[in-house]
Amino acid sequence: MIIKNPDPLDFSYVPQNLRFRETQIDTVKKLMLEPLKAGVCSNLVAFGDSGTGKTSTMRYLIREEKRFLMVYENALSFGSMRLLLADALSRLGRITGTKNIAYPDIFRAMKRISQEKGRNIVLIMDEATNIIKFDRDGVYNLLRASEIYGTPISSIMVSMEDPSVYMNERDRKSLGVFSTILFNRYSREELTRIIEERARISLEYGSYDQEILEYIGEIAQPFGSARVAIELLQKSAYACQYRNGDRMENEDVRTAKSMINPYVTESKLGELDSDELAVLLAICRCLKSEASTDMTCVLREIRVVNEQYGVDAGESSKVYRTVKRLETLGIVEGKIVGRGDKKGVSKMIGINDVPVSILEEKITSFMSRTH
Asked: Would you tell me which CATH number, out of the four given (2.40.128.270, 1.10.8.60, 1.10.10.10, 1.10.1040.10), belongs to the domain 186-260?
């Protein structure tokens, strides 16, 4: 068993220190929380792609900021702002008893709660895109609550898109001023650092090495998503346990990737000709114990495959063209890397969407039926 604490392998886990989101946290404090201490209400929109830490940042603030009454709601659970606010009231300790409670009653109740507890309210609405798009009246009542109802409430709406794209000039004027905070995609290095911390507190010492974590970071980089990186780490660890391993390997990571975002299927292999299958088989054999390989190994292995199956994948130039086509089809991934000491660059090839042992088995089955 290599997993000693499964909790940090869940994306919903909020670490003690939220790495690479210090700027966004400081911005929320500067634009909203500090003014709110003086009774000045404001509204923010936090937006960015999936897995960029929006929800984790909000949960971190709820945990750390005890000076305010911070209420978290997932807007996908509600068909309207009115229902969402009624639920927020119940979380604050006031059961409304009706789904048709009017906005004045909602905000009067919130004002009394704020006064009784001596803390201002911050409402955080996650997955707020649909409410922003389709309940403009509800959004208006919330964003203008301080002005219309005298209720000191600030709000943070969390969305994948910048909500201004749904608003015309009239909407912007009626809803008033709100600030936006962008959650940018994580870089490869940031993703690697994030899963380093998760691995350290969740996995047994010696059950992984730095190269495996960097491989996970590399696979997650196109998504820019900590959610993907953490899920890859989680599923890689469980794949290792399933095979009774005591150390994660490249194949465990490929297994994890095939679970999350499978791409290479038997139908795709069926579309390849014999030369392409031969080159792909050679690549698989080169990758048995490596995260990536170079063309030297592929050219060496293709000779063995040619003899074994009686095919002719062609000269080196044709093999290069075949590898390029496999890249275009998304079956293999190529990258140019420096060889150091001014020795130029080389082409490295990898397969990340499926364990190469399984892919080799499928290709062998295809080629055995046709040769």
From this structure: 1.10.8.60
Residue 54 has pLDDT above 70, yes or no: yes
Q: Give the pair of three-digit tokens for residue 54.
A: 């929006």
With vertex at residue 184, the alpha carbon angle to CA 50 and CA 88, rounded to the nearest 5 degrees, is 55
The CATH code of domain 266-370 reads 1.10.10.10
Give the tokens for residue 14. Answer: 């909020």
Phi, psi of 347, deg, nearest 5: -90, 125
C-alpha distances in angstroms, 276 versus 159, 269, 285, 330?
43, 9, 14, 13
Q: What is the dihedral of CA 168, 173, 178, 181, to 10 degrees?
A: 20
For residues 252 and 233, give the distance between their C-alpha atoms in angstroms, rounded to a whole number.
9
Task: In the chain, count H helices and then E strands.
Answer: 18, 8
* pLDDT tens digits for range 289-342: 899 999 999 999 999 999 999 998 889 999 999 999 999 998 999 988 876 666
| pLDDT at 270 (0 to 100) | 85
Q: Rounded CA gap, 261 and 61, in Å? A: 31
Rounded Cα–Cα distance for residues 235 and 194 (Å):
16
What is the helix (H) or strand (E) element at residue 23, kind and residue range?
helix 22-28
Q: Residue 356 pLDDT > 90, yes or no?
A: yes
> Which comes out higher in pLDDT, residue 354 or 265?
354
* Domain residue extents for the chain: 22-183, 186-260, 266-370
Torsional sign, CA 111, 113, 116, 117: negative
The percent of residues in the chain predicted with pLDDT above 90, rounded, is 76
CA distance 25 to 16: 14
Interacting residues of 152 by C-beta distance below 8 A, sequence separation 6+: 36, 39, 41, 111, 114, 120, 121, 146
Retrieve residue 219's tokens: 């696979």
Q: How far apart are CA 287 and CA 297, in angstroms?
A: 9
Amino acid at position 300, single letter: R
pLDDT tops 90 at residue 264: no
- Mean pLDDT in residue range 132-156: 92
**CATH number of the domain located at residue range(s) 22-183 in this protein:** 3.40.50.300
